[in-house]
Fold:
Amino acid sequence: MDENKQENTEKAINPLLKMALELGPPILFFILYIRIQDDVFTIGDIEYTGFIFATIIFVPILLASIAALWFLTGKLSRMQIFTAVMVILFGALTAWFNDPRFFKMKTTLVYGFFTVILGIGLLQKKSYLAYVLSEAMPMQHEGWMILTKRLTILFASLAIANEIIWRNMSESTWVTIETFIFPVVMFVFLWVQIMMLQKYMDLDED
Structure:
């Protein structure tokens, strides 16, 4: 039993290295896109815009970073696995149909998926968020329900915002917001919520 527990425990990793592996791929995608956004690339007899070419390059970069995290920590979160699947799927659709809309819609579908999943849990008076994060952040059930409700609203808002942005704004604006603004909004939101829900935290647990 103890051996199994030990195997499932995430190995220690330098926080800066972990941050670089998690944030590196989208930042590299942004830098690559900015450099080649006006270029056209021909592969075979098919011409690809800079955005689609950057997307094609982004997929293996992201998978390499996830593989490195798996190798270094011995564990992958459900979020990382889901992200890898969505990026591969919509990256492939973007390249196959030579249509950037697939990759832009990916963000809407990811946020929409989380909205639906968390919403179903709320209807059942459960927090699927607790199922994923309870080990890292011990908290009472009431606190998890509050956080889940608020996060469901945030995910729904981000899904709607993504649709409005990519359909009505320039491609470079969407890339900038997708790379920097959405993650910052998510980070600030979670940080504020954790501060607000301190009274529900099980601080006496290890």
